Amino acid sequence: MSACRYGLCVFRHLRLSLMALAVTAAAACGGSAGPVDRGGAQPTSGGAYFTYTFEDKVFRIDARAGATPEDVSARLARFGAGTRDRWLVPSSNGATLVLSTDRLACPNVGECLAITPRDLSTLTAVLPGGEEVSVEGTPAVSDDGNTVVFPARGGPHSVDLWTTRRSGAGWAAAVLLTAASTAAYNNSPALAFDGARVLFDCGSTPYPEGGDTNACEVRTDGTGLRVLVRPTTLPNPRENFVQFPHDSLDGVLFQGSWAIGAERPETIWLLPAAGGAPRDLGRLLTNAVSPCGLRDGRIGVLWLSRPGNPMGKHELTLLGRDGTVERVLTPDVDVSDIGIGCGG
């Protein structure tokens, strides 16, 4: 996308542009992370962190200056050879992670849903009612590690959301969450901080970029399903979809393309918890996607338009609570745009 011009006045545009460039330069020049580390054990510090997928491998990185990516796939190799790990997502407190992996004995589906603690000391398949699960997108896990929400086929729609809970040494049979949905595809669930609600993509196509995708919400008992945000919520959308709703301290974060002045950038928006219309949290970012909110108020996004990133790589970037850039965590790394995770 071209550089953002807000269409306000020349002075304000220049001031905002200089602010963005100054903050970006400070973030990128800090040397917070180089090329993706492929070595192995570099455990996170115990604080907040982000997770992401890159070339069929999964990584995590502390939400701080000077952090180095940890190759989680390399650390999980002792549980099975495997060729593909993806959709690594932690609980909001960071204590437990879920992912899709082919490292375990899942002969019926090959790549299956799995769970691991923060220290990666174990890796076990999540088998609702003893059945293997092949997930269609990012899963989610509760803070106590006892509830997992995942998107899969087998329901009344093309893709539905399901939940399973620990039962003894195993997992209870999956329970359908999106029976009341009018969307064919219900995907990318993210548990709200209260653990009682699930935010997710709901639309008519398997990929939101195909159009007609909203941000929806349902309670973990399957009640209260509703649409939170539609592409038509604000006027003049550039794209006919919104995507990746995630909870934050101030409301629901999501990706959308609505007018900001004379431009319609694809960037990050906030649906305020206090009510009212969504606001342009990512107003200084001309192309940013896949938001994920930490409990301390900071936000992770994939930013494509940093000065010095001419190829438009999806760089994992740390934002402050107000949307200003604090740190580019993975400069020059093109993170897979399939959803990121955050916790701690």
Textual characterization of the structure:
With 344 residues, the protein is mainly β. The protein has helices at 10-28, 72-76, and strands at 49-54, 57-62, 70-71, 85-90, 96-101, 112-117, 124-125, 140-141, 147-152, 160-167, 170-171, 175-176, 185-191, 197-203, 213-219, 226-229, 243-248, 251-256, 267-272, 288-293, 299-303, 315-319, 325-328, 341-343. Strands 8, 9, 10, 11 and 12 form a 5-stranded antiparallel beta sheet that branches. A 4-stranded antiparallel beta sheet has the order 3-2-1-24. Strand 8 and strand 9 form a beta hairpin. It starts with 9 loop residues before the first helix and ends with a strand. Residues 1-42 have low confidence and may be disordered.
